[in-house]
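The instructor's notes for this session suggest beginning with a concrete chain rather than abstract definitions. Hand out the sequence below and ask the class to guess, before any prediction is shown, which regions might be ordered.
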Amino acid sequence: QVQLVESGGGLVQAGGSLGLSCVASGNIFSINAMGWYRQAPGKQRELVAAVTSGAATNYADSVKGRFTISRDNAKNMVYLQMNSLKPEDTAVYYCKAVLRASFRSDWSDYWGQGTQVFVSS
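After discussion, reveal the predicted structure:
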């Protein structure tokens, strides 16, 4: 009924840039916060960046000054611009939305399928 689809992952050299996009679609009534998480092999999933419906943002310390999160409420989209990439940024990046589906009266978390980012040294 509701799905989030990420795009923009790929292979890039250290110091390069990538832009990730995520669009939420389906039977959506309203979207609250949206964010990006990542999970490297053998590691726990961690928050990278998040943005509220009012455009307030927060970032993991490891990406501050390098990554920028933004959203387009009208399009149900969230973006992550990643600059000055490092090998330690290599991970599967997941989009998350806190939203209310039209068929529910409460707020729930929805996740995308993930997109691979690989940064070579």
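Then share the key points. The chain has no helices and eleven strands. Residues 34 and 44 are 19 Å apart (CA to CA).
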